[in-house]
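> tool_call: predict_assembly(chains=two)
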Amino acid sequence: MTSQLKLTRRGFLAGTAAVGALSLAGPSFAASKTLNILSHRVHQTSLGEGDADAMKDWKAANDAELNWTTFDSNPLMDRLFREASLSSTDFSVGYMVDNRPTSEIAKLFEPLGPWLEKDGIEEFDDIAPGLVQGMTVDGNLIGIPVRTATQALFYNEARLEEVGISAPPTTIEELVEQARKVTESGKATGMILASDLAVFPVMFARAYGGDFINKDFELLPNKEAMEKGLTTLADMFKDGSLPKSYATTKNDDQVTWMQQGRAAFTVLPFARAAQLNNAEQSKYPGKIKAIGFPGSKDSTVPMASVVEAWAMVIPANAKDKELAWSFIKEVSSKKNTLVMALNGNGPARVSTFGEAELTAKNPLAAVEAEVLAQARGAFPPFPEAARAQALFLEEVQLAVLGRKTPAEAVAAIESRVAPLLPS
Amino acid sequence: MRNKRLLNLLKTIAVLAIVVWSLFPIFFIVVSSFKAGHDIFAVPTKWFFEPTVQHYQKLVSAWPVFFSSLWNSTVITAGATALAVIASTTAGYVYSRYNSRLLNASIVYLIGVRLIPPIVVTLPLFPIVNWLGINDTHFVLIVLYATFFVSLGTVLMRTFIDQIPRELDEAAAIDGASRMTILRKVIVPLATPGIIAVAVFVIVFAWNEFLFAFIFTSTNAKTAPLVVSEMIGSIDGVDWGVLFAASTVQLLPVLLFVVFMNRYLVAGLTAGATKG
């Protein structure tokens, strides 16, 4: 029980006191007001920083500082709802994704209709009506849409050319065929899709005119189409057009596989084009292109891609709602929607897609606008949505891996998910 | 003789397998942080490459919050360690030198508390912490981390102090030393390896902890693991090079500390093993 290391009382107490003093040190703010915002980092960076800060003039006019607290999507939603359920919160603005506002959750947030009437947002009708509808719960508008992420079909042009394909697919049948051709060449896997997201099987079902749960909470409105979608995925897995690791594939794998040229096709939001073609990360910069996900040649229903939207909300228990609304108004302006779009944000305003500055910088803007016009959420929000999605994915995976027939999987989805839907 | 050699060979293979299993992820992260972005996940893996510090430069320019969060982690870890060590040492001394039914029962309670999953206490604490107005402060995490480790630390310190002969306490008492003086001047110097062992446990825990930090901090006391988790963004994709650079920077101090303090850690783990 001897030691070379001496721990003296004086040293120990001095160290403790120093740590205590340090812990009391806190930040100081020059402006007289601080607006605390709860968001994803992407919402903050899209507004620009330093000299390019789109909110510079607003801050000066309101003598206010913006204090951003950022988290990734799911932790952000968790924190936002917890803050909103307290008796009061320091966060006056939050960013909410459109698949979350159920009736219960909407009650935690300020109805924005009266604010809009009192102090309107510039050309509010320009904000895509579908997105506004998505943030309207029980007749109350609770969020102002600010960001969209519309799913696109990405393809590696170089990989397709290697196997003699000169143009991307225009139907899902062509997509399956082209993916098979790439796979058979042995140069890459046809397609990479994450197995833990409902977006992809929903897209395949929609390609045949079906859906998982529509906006009227109708489960499997076209069972035959869902069966066809699952059959297509299962066939792609069987012939190797989806990787053997399908069951463990995640969203990030889609990006790295495409960047490395290991897969020829994937489905990701349009905004990912920059990352997929980033010369620092990708082996195929400029070669990974995007189009709308194609529907079936036999389907009479237009293909509706999946879109996810974010909106700005004010917690009902927020301390400074005036300042919060002023911030929301400023961020939603036409000018700032364009600034954010130029910084990679999917615009919520229809007119922004047509801005010359944006189309010059982002050649996909016109395609995205076209796809967005038909797009809708993967499924509407409801209290048991997370469980419904988990059950849906479980059955989809069993079908894709060949453990169940698509018909059996569809029947199981129907019987297992139906009790979870709102009555 | 042959059997012994075979056994040694098998042991060596087993140890090597465990070492590779444990160290490969760390090795992969550190090495990848010096690779060009498109080489990180190249297939086949690129073992030979021209090292670059571009990810570290980007970490500095794009994620300044990471470095302020490292400072927060340092302050919180140091504070929690100091608090846990003081509480564990004094409590361990009491448990070692005093004996009563209540004390014996309370040690069972201490161990029982340690068995409760942290999430069970975390969520109900959220409104209380808000009500107290200590949300997003270093103080709240210092107290929580220390509290979480006081039970284990106390048991550990009792085991160490048990090994210090009581005659030393008695000799000091005869010389007129009070209980506090005995603790400070006799027990603490002799129990230093135990104190270091407790400190190592708290430091490793506090430096890497995510759940409490996620629930109870926002901006002012945000710790490094939270910022690293933000880099694994689900919306705008992961910049793996920057993520690995941040992980390397975050890993380095605690890795060096644990390597440096390794012998105390082993002492802590084996404390009391030969007692009796």
